[in-house]
């Protein structure tokens, strides 16, 4: 009887140990070595060739170009590590870069899930890919209209952030193509958004919009008194409170200066921007920062549209 009990205990312990070992994820060192990418491709049954790209930025970054058997470029894989930051991107191609004569190929929609899994395995959180993909699939299915233009979907699982970009295949079409899957940890995520400030400034410059730098909430409120229609770029230090979903009547006619498309309500949230001079209602992108992080002091980059009396925030950068 004792032997049977000991045997049952032994089987139970072995089962726990085996389960723990099976669930342990492999986390590869960043930037990814070529042999790691080759190993993962083989593991996932993907028969693509790999080329190292000389455009890798520095010692902490590696870029690989992946081609199919027809020697057409499928995507590039970029991995970056600096201090505690960890960043991975799998980038594909827009319809404007695809043609019969092109040396590039498009990933079809029935391959999107495989691309999610590939990105997650390379990053080191392959157990999350199914959950992330199912939520992304629901989002993309609901957003099937080219009138909304390019889609950016954000998701956070624990301390891992996802950004996935889709774009319409052609104007007036409901079909989308996958442009990018980006995965990063908290430190890389903050740096990622910080790197977009120059892009924001370039858009302001290109559109010849006046920038109000280091203004206050009271300054924005005073803009309402101007008797003219205008758009202003704003840079303001403050924190966000009372973050919630947008009501239908709160969605403005535009949120993007560089695109003639309608905003999609699920891509945005409502919040109160607060500083020492007061508070104002603003619209913010539905990012993967949590409420506690958005409540911290940040530099906010955005636009004030006088015609609709609405303030739209593009970027919220942690204040240093």
Q: What does this entry show, briefly?
A:
Keywords: Signal. This protein is of the alpha+beta class.
Characterise the protein shown here:
- The chain has a 7-stranded antiparallel beta sheet with strand order 1-2-3-4-7-6-5, sandwiched between helices. Strands 8, 9, 10, 11, 12 and 13 form a 6-stranded mixed beta sheet that branches.
- With 320 residues, it is an alpha+beta fold.
- The chain starts with a helix and ends with a strand.
- About 6% of the residues have low confidence.
- The protein is 28% helix and 33% strand.
- The chain is built from 8 helices and 13 strands.
- It folds into 2 domains: 155 residues, no CATH class; 110 residues, OB fold (Dihydrolipoamide Acetyltransferase, E2P) (Beta Barrel).
Keywords:
alpha+beta; OB fold (Dihydrolipoamide Acetyltransferase, E2P); 2 domains; seven-stranded antiparallel beta sheet; 13 strands; signal
**Proportion of strand residues:** 25-35%
Briefly note the structural class of the backbone: alpha+beta
User: Please, how many domains?
Assistant: 2
Mean pLDDT: 85
DSSP strand tally? 13
Judging from the principal axes of the Cα atoms, what is the shape?
globular
How many distinct helices?
A: 8
How far the N terminus sits from the C terminus, by CA atoms, comes to 67 Å
**Radius of gyration using CA atoms only:** 23 Å
Main sheet characteristics: 7 strands, antiparallel
Low-confidence stretches: 5-23
Return the string of H and E elements. Answer: HHEEEEHHEEEHHEHEEEHEE
Helix content: 25-40%
Signal peptide: 1-20
Keywords: Signal
């Amino acid at each position: 009887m004792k032997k049977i009990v000991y045997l049952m205990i032994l089987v139970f312990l072995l089962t726990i140990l085996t389960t723990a070992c099976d669930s342990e994820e492999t986390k590869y060192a960043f930037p990814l070595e070529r042999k790691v990418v080759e190993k993962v491709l083989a593991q996932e049954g993907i028969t693509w060739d790999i080329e190292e790209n000389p455009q890798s930025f520095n010692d902490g970054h590696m870029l690989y170009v992946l081609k199919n058997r027809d020697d057409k470029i499928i995507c590039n894989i970029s991995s970056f590590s600096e201090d505690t930051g960890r960043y991975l991107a799998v980038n594909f191609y827009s319809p404007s870069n695809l043609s019969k004569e092109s040396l590039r190929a498009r990933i079809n929609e029935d391959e999107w899930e495989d691309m999610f899994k590939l990105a997650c395995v390379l990053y080191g959180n392959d157990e999350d890919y199914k959950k992330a993909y199912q939520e992304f699939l629901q989002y993309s299915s609901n957003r099937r209209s080219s009138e909304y233009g390019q889609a950016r979907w954000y998701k956070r699982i624990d301390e891992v952030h996802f950004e996935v970009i889709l774009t319409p295949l052609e104007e007036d079409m409901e079909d989308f193509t996958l442009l990018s899957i980006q995965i990063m940890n908290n430190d890389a995520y903050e740096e990622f958004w910080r790197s977009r400030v120059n892009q924001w400034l370039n858009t302001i410059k290109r559109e010849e919009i006046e920038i109000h730098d280091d203004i206050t909430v009271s300054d924005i409120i005073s803009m309402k008194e101007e008797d003219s229609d205008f758009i202003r770029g704003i840079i303001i230090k403050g924190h966000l409170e009372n973050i919630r979903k947008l009501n239908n009547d709160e969605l403005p006619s535009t949120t993007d200066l560089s695109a003639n498309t309608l905003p999609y309500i699920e891509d945005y949230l409502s919040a109160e921007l607060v500083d020492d001079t007061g508070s104002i209602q603003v619209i913010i992108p539905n990012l993967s920062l949590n409420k506690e992080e958005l409540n911290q002091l940040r530099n906010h980059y955005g636009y004030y549209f006088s015609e609709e009396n609405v303030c739209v925030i593009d970027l919220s950068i942690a204040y240093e």
